[in-house]
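User: Hi! I'm working on a homework problem where we have to compare a predicted structure to a textbook description. Could you give me the structure for the chain below?
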Amino acid sequence: MNKSELISSLSEETTFSKKDVSRVLESFTRIIERTLKSGGKVAITGFGSFVVSRRPARKGINPATKERIDLPEIHVPRFKPGKSLRELVKSIKAS
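Assistant: Happy to help. Predicted structure tokens:
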């Protein structure tokens, strides 16, 4: 499902206009971005949490030249699913 499909589905389920749903979705993503940028966490009970994870500096290898390189510490966004979402996905039958 892409963004426009999500907006359409939310619009159908809530009876809000696609324009209103789109504005809410844009605000939602901006708030999450702003919160993560300031070092915070966004937790949605029953769904999951958006957090920032730290990857420490490490040694790596350039695959083209096989030269050893130093990789700097970086911060990456992570999503940790909540218990009910994990259980829902776990219950999906493999095909």
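For your comparison, note the following. The beta strands are 42-44, 48-55, 58-61, 68-71, 74-81. DSSP finds three helices and five strands in the chain. Good luck with the assignment!
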